[in-house]
């Protein structure tokens, strides 16, 4: 018996074929130029996806570094500025209470 006869004697529903085996068999249907273009396109797509992940990771790191640096540098300054303004406001309120409401009008007349 030849090899073709062996496969012909087995019913089609008993043959099990993986997807990769089917795809490998289909490659003979297409010319080499088409297969090489598809191969190039698939490789380019994989490369672009990998570069997308790398770019996303890089941008995520840059945003994290920028945000944390900004918080560490700006928040203490803003808190200190707010504290100084509150202290200044409290001193002005204490002066008004001690000297009375006429102290502000006396200051404007002296100037």
Beta-sheet strand percentage?
Answer: under 5%
Strand pairing plus helix content: what structural class?
mainly alpha
How many β-strand runs?
0
**Which outline best applies?**
rod-shaped
Mean pLDDT: 86
What gyration radius follows from the Cα positions, in whole Å? Answer: 40 Å
Describe this structure in words.
The radius of gyration is 40 Å and the shape is rod-shaped. The model has no long low-confidence stretch (mean pLDDT 86). The protein is 83% helix and 0% strand. The protein is mostly helical and 111 residues long. The chain has helices spanning 3-9, 19-26, 32-99, 102-110. It has 4 helices and no strands. It has one domain (17-110).
Structure in a nutshell:
With 111 residues, this protein is mainly alpha-helical. Helices cover 83% and strands 0% of the residues.
Topology:
Elements: H1 3-9, H2 19-26, H3 32-99, H4 102-110
Transmembrane segments: 53-79
Pfam families: Tom22 (PF04281)
Main location: mitochondrion
């Amino acid at each position: 018996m030849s090899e073709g006869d062996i496969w012909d004697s087995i019913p089609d529903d008993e043959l099990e074929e993986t997807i990769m085996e089917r795809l490998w068999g289909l490659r003979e249907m297409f010319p080499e130029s088409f297969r090489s273009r598809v191969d190039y396109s698939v490789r380019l797509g994989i490369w672009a996806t990998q570069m997308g992940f790398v770019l996303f990771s890089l941008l995520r790191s840059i945003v994290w570094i920028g945000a944390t640096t900004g918080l560490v540098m700006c928040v203490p300054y803003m808190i200190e500025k707010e504290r100084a303004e509150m202290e200044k406001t409290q001193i002005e309120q204490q002066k008004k209470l001690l000297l009375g409401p006429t102290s502000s009008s006396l200051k404007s007349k002296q100037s």
